[in-house]
Amino acid sequence: MFERSDETLIKQALKGKKSAWIALVKRYEKPLYNYALRMVSNPDDALDLMQDVFVAVFRNLSSFRGDSPFKGWLFKIAHYRCIEFYRKKKPTQSLDDSPEPEEIDDTACPEGSLSTGQQVIGIQNALQHLPMNQKLVVELKFFQHATFDEIAKQLGISVNTAKSRLYSGLDKLKEYVELDYV
């Protein structure tokens, strides 16, 4: 059986077909949840963010122009919701107060190829130490498989800035991961 394209599902959802909307949600719920979990490191907050993003997408589906892929538009909304989350978050909350991140579904992202769950948790913890602008670029490049052009367009920055943030973030990640294993 063939899989309907995002564009087909969007057209059907806009005409009021519930099954098309449900198919879109099911297609993107795992990647969106994993993205939110990597950004906020709390399963409950990740679920809330995912729900908030899908509500926003549902309300604004008619404004999707199709200039870029639906997935990019969806994750751009998720990106803004994560920024809003951090703006609302208490500025005095320490990273040490954050709960341990859960393991992420390894069918939806590449870290499943790591040999142990401990390594995954170590990388997740290291990601939490990155500044938001670097964490977003690392997330988009390695977990969403976006190109530098796509990252630049989605974040409203130049390609060189995206590259700079990625390499700075990777340098910091390397330091944090090495500290955990020394």
From TrEMBL:
SUPFAM superfamilies: Sigma2 domain of RNA polymerase sigma factors (SSF88946), Sigma3 and sigma4 domains of RNA polymerase sigma factors (SSF88659)
Biased composition (Acidic residues): 97-108
Keyword match Transcription: yes
Domain RNA polymerase sigma-70 region: 24-90
Cellular component, GO, one term: DNA-directed RNA polymerase complex
Ranges in a coiled coil: none
Region (Disordered): 92-113
Biological process according to GO: DNA-templated transcription initiation
Residue intervals of the RNA polymerase sigma factor 70 region 4 type domain: 123-173
A Pfam family hit: Sigma70_r2
Superkingdom of origin: Bacteria
Similarity comment: Belongs to the sigma-70 factor family. ECF subfamily.
Protein name: DNA-directed RNA polymerase sigma-70 factor
Organism expressing this protein natively: Thalassotalea marina
Lineage: Bacteria, Pseudomonadati, Pseudomonadota, Gammaproteobacteria, Alteromonadales
